[in-house]
Amino acid sequence: MSDETNETSEQQPVDETAAESTEAAPVAEEQVEPTAEEQPAPEPEPAAEEQQAAPEPAPVAKEEKKDVIPGADLEPIAVEPEAPELSAEERARLEAEEEEKARREAELAAAETESQVADRAPAKMESGARFIATGKRKRSIARVILLPGDGKFTVNDRSLEEFFPRPLHQTMARQPLTVSGYEGNVDVRVRVHGGGISGQAGAVRHGIARALTEIDAELRGDLKRRGFLTRDARVKERRKAGFKKARKKPQFSKR
Fold this sequence. Notes:
This protein is α+β, with helices and mostly antiparallel strands. The protein is built from seven helices and five strands, in the order αααββββααβαα.
């Protein structure tokens, strides 16, 4: 009996532990496996076409703020070096020279094209006749004497070619004689002073034209039409007291 009791006593705890292990297994399974209600619903997978069409957004890099100079994107303009500025006197002198040159060229062209040959024969003059006239241009004054002769031309006791070396001034002085047909029929004596070479040539022409109207009054219309009887009165204005020049005032300073 003692042996049976021992065996039974030894077997009972073994069975209890096995029973405990068998009972504990389903309990552990119930704790690990969640119920259907507790499980989250599966997210719907996007369609394949949508995945291909939607590109992945590129990473946006943060731009660093830099100091931008206004007008830095504009293209530079090439500026040519400017010529040195001329003074008022130099500009006025250049303009006057250009105007005078254009006027002289126009006069010479008109004289050559219109009347290189006189329209009619010169009038007869007495052997001792003297025709005196005064011509002026700017500051130049010429006293002219016409005498019957063979075309000798003297200016201040010198020949025309010696006193006026430039052909332009020689042609200007002879224009009234060429137009009227008296070239080669009268001797010309001139006393001229003041002004420059161009002004003196214009004064001689003016004086000869006036003397020719004394010989033949009918020449006045032809000479007037060509401008030989018109006096060029452009004289430089004198300087006034307190002024820099004729009209240029000194700079005003308030303080």
